[in-house]
Amino acid sequence: MLGKHALKPGEKTELKVSYETEGRPGPFEKKVTLTTKIPGRETIEIFAVKGKVLEAPGAKISVEPRRVTLKGEERAAGKVQRFVVKNEGSLPLIVKGIRSKDGKTAYYDGGDFTVEPGQSREIEIKLLGKPGDKEEREFLLVDSNARNAGESGLFLMIQYGAP
């Protein structure tokens, strides 16, 4: 970018153009334009770049089910729930734990476990009950090294009562 600089006739300058691809996988098309004070040519397209950014290698997590509803006796007493943790990425997935969003309850802290690319692992955790009839939600966080989980972790939702 030249900013507010002006070039005199015949003068040259070097332009450096970069496109930060981190976190932006997929197709892209970018154009580099020059703004001038030339009547009728106020904007000149210098060149265009078109391509596809490949996704960076990494672990990618999916968990089934993502939502569990507890009703009736299960709502009051809780239940043991099976979850399937799958690695849809290209590097090993390391799961470090499953906890409540507020961090007060550890649902799984049996040590780190690894899921290889394209593989899955079944785990069981005891979901806690909640007395009463009021519809409530609790969010659990799966802590892992997955690129698609964000810094806080992958969310699972526990619904108490009718959704």
Question: Briefly, what is this?
Answer:
With 163 residues, the protein is mainly beta. Helices cover 4% and strands 47% of the residues.
SSE inventory with pairings:
Layout: E1 26-35, E2 43-53, E3 61-64, E4 67-70, H1 72-77, E5 79-87, E6 93-100, E7 106-108, E8 113-115, E9 120-127, E10 136-144, E11 154-160
Parallel strand pairs: 4-11
Antiparallel strand pairs: 1-2, 3-5, 5-9, 6-7, 6-8, 6-10, 10-11
Overall spatial form: elongated
Percent strand: over 45%
Question: What fold name goes in the CATH topology slot of the largest domain?
Answer: Immunoglobulin-like
- Count of extended strands: 11
Fraction of helical residues: under 10%
Order of helices and strands: EEEEHEEEEEEE
Unreliable stretches covering 5 or more consecutive residues:
none
What's the mean pLDDT score?
88
- The CATH first-level class of the largest domain comes to Mainly Beta
Number of domains: 2
Going by CATH, the homologous superfamily of the largest domain would be Immunoglobulins
The largest pleated sheet is described as:
6 strands, mixed
Please name the CATH architecture of the largest domain. Answer: Sandwich
User: Number of DSSP helices?
Assistant: 1
| N→C terminal distance | 53 Å
Round the Cα radius of gyration to an integer and report it.
26 Å
Classification by helices and strands = mainly beta
